[in-house]
Amino acid sequence: MCETTKMMDFKDTLIFESQKEFYDERGRGARYRMTTVGVSFFKREIGDLKDLPGLIEWLQKNDFCRQIKKEEDNLSLALRVDGCCLRKITEQFIAKNGQPLSCPIANIVMYSLELNGSLPPELIPVEFEGETCIVKMAKIFTSDVVK
Amino acid sequence: MEVARDVMIKVINDRRSIRNYTAEKVSEEDLLVILESARQAPSGENAQPWRYIVVRDKKNMKFLSDLSRRGSGRRFTGEFLSKQMQERFKTLDDPAKKEAAYKKLTSGDVSAFVNEADVNLIVFGKKNVWDCPFDLSAAIENILLAVTALGLGACWVVAPCMDVRDEKLLNEYFGISDEYKSVSIISIGHPSRIPNPRPRIPLEELVFNEKFGEYYYPKKNA
């Protein structure tokens, strides 16, 4: 099958419109129904999702992202994602002053953390710095966060 | 009929989200009235997609409590880290009350009380129905009103099913198949404390005349 640029653009538009329709139907809670989107694909393609550094390397090597930088502390994990293959979809949300409804890169990282014994993390609204997505997640829940 | 009207309005106004319960049991008679009230709710095309699991077993209640705690705690810890929670409470002036609210929410305690109720109803419904979530919401409201009319207390808790990852665990644990969607649990018991009513947005700000933007009721201070 020939995947022309037009066809890729069509698929991106379909994904955006589907997510937008879902948001319009379900409201803000829609994002909680999207926290596993993409995981089955990476399970199939990569197999071992427990190795987080290996997973990040795989995403970069296979052009899912140009670069992912990881910052982590006891409470949270943040990814600075450059050159994401889903960026065009994200930009359509930004253009409508919205948040992307799901981040499959975050979903697979959250799943990997779970496999390493974490509770399912909570994805915080994505922030943007130019072309970079800052994807942050709370790894644990605790009232110690209140200082 | 005036009596029915007055009673109905009183029940609606008296309903609260009850999170504190005595050790007294909910009788089978009362539970039957509650479930029968749910059965009488309206549903699109009379599809009646609702199904319920009655949970009283301590181990199962503990599972629901743990799942609810982590669902709420995770969400609110995220909201605190992203400053959404601070925005939500910005009008609360008392710093001690503010901190207490932050701690209660981020700890997950706000939803973990469910195992202190005598009964939990898991509310789930058939996916292959046009209006399943709306139908289930109507049934839940009937449950809450019946509970209030019986002098009992209940709380509508979505924490264990809101995130698809948690709902999957709940469904697996209770053997709910993929044809169904779990939407909530309803904790029911004898209230040990009736909280004050929560503030309500005045009707003047809620209702519009013929089209959105023009208020139906004049503002009282206008």
Structure description:
- The complex is a heterodimer of chains A (147) and B (222).
- In chain A, 41% of the residues lie in helices and 17% in strands.
- Chain A has helices at residues 5-26, 39-46, 52-61, 87-95, 104-115, and strands spanning 67-72, 76-82, 122-123, 127-129, 132-138.
- In chain A, strands 1, 2, 3, 4 and 5 form a five-stranded antiparallel β-sheet that branches.
- In chain A, helix 1 (5-26) crosses helix 4 (87-95).
- Chain B has 222 residues and is an alpha+beta fold.
- The interface between A and B is medium-sized, with 24 and 24 residues.
Features:
heterodimer; A: 147 residues; alpha+beta; globular; B: 222 residues; four-stranded antiparallel β-sheet; 8 helices
Topology overview:
The complex is a heterodimer of chains A (147) and B (222).
Chain A: H1 5-26, H2 39-46, H3 52-61, E1 67-72, E2 76-82, H4 87-95, H5 104-115, E3 122-123, E4 127-129, E5 132-138
Antiparallel strand pairs in A: 1-2, 2-5, 3-5, 4-5
Chain B: H1 2-14, H2 28-39, E1 50-55, H3 58-81, H4 84-88, H5 95-107, H6 109-112, E2 119-126, H7 132-149, E3 153-157, H8 164-174, E4 180-189
Antiparallel strand pairs in B: 1-2, 2-4, 3-4
Helix pairs in contact in B: 2-7, 3-5
